Amino acid sequence: MQIYLVGGAVRDRLLGLKVKDHDWVVVGATPEEMIKAGYKPVGKDFPVFLHPKTAEEYALARTERKSGKGYTGFEFFASPDVSLEEDLRRRDLTINAIAQDSDGQLIDPYGGQQDLEARVLRHVSPAFREDPLRVLRVARFAARFADLNFRIADETLALMREISASDELDYLTPERVWQEFERALGTRSPLVFIHSLNVVSACERLLPEFCQLDNEAAEKACGQLAKNGGNAEQQFALLTNLATASLDNAAALEQIRELCVRVRSPNRFRDLALQLRQFHQDLATFSELAAERKLKLVKQLDLLRRPERLELMRPCVAALVQTETGGIAEGIETLLERMSAVEPRQLMAEGFSGKALGEEIEKRQLAICAEGRSAGSGRAD
Questions:
Q1: How many domains does the chain divide into?
Q2: What is the model's pTM?
Q3: What is the pLDDT of residues 330-345, one digit of tens each?
Q4: 264 is annotated as contributing to ligand binding
């Protein structure tokens, strides 16, 4: 039995990046031997085991053969006779097909180290074309490593176009498309993901709403949000707002809702995207709003109970209107603090109750909002 560290852990260490997960390949073992050694079997389609102490994944070396459509249309063969080189050959990119043995020696039969140095994303073998998910994966790696100036090899782009021209992309489930998209959104260069899909004619098939965002203005906005620490949720909200900028509010909100249903995005992604579309202009011009509009905005965003929404939206709004984050809704925290000080118990002690209590709370909160633009902008009267 021989055990090798493989995939992202080896790649990221060679790139000087933080290693998050460790994946292992076991050569020369049977499932029975793994179980006897204390490993817990968890794989459904092929033999994968969890280490009894670290819970890291250990997979038996295997080969695969295309047997149907889509990324699930494969038959796997795991045996003690399968070599490490055969296992590495089934991987997507050469930079992901490097192994390391227990002595720290690298096994690199497909030139992954050379491609790391050249900053090239290159497929391992022609079998790359058999898995449509790899179109999304390569686009995602292009986004992840854009800061390191990686590019997709021309011959790999050709295979990605070949996949796009077939019907294989139609077999990708919304969940798998979203999983790759969300991971790309979490990078500093999510538009590289969109650009890569556009180059191989896959964007129109998978994420048509975003195809037109392959432009300088969108890149500038997304870049600003990334510099301000924007996460995947915020980048999604920004991209959907950029994609619907030419639509009226009702049409834009409907398109965002339909998109979120189709790609099966989590509710928090949908909600932030909708809120950003509805309220970004009011947040951008908050100090200039009338008192009634300010109070309505606070209520619609439920900011007295959910002030964290403001911190999520602020850098997104700044990226949309191309201004500094600190200039968005400046002074609103002071306003919210004063509005929160309007205590129902105190008003009840003053004799208010029922409908009159609610009306008095709103009256006093409105008075706070009306104390002049100077209060809204954080300046003293």
A1: 2
A2: 0.88
A3: 889 999 999 999 989 8
A4: no
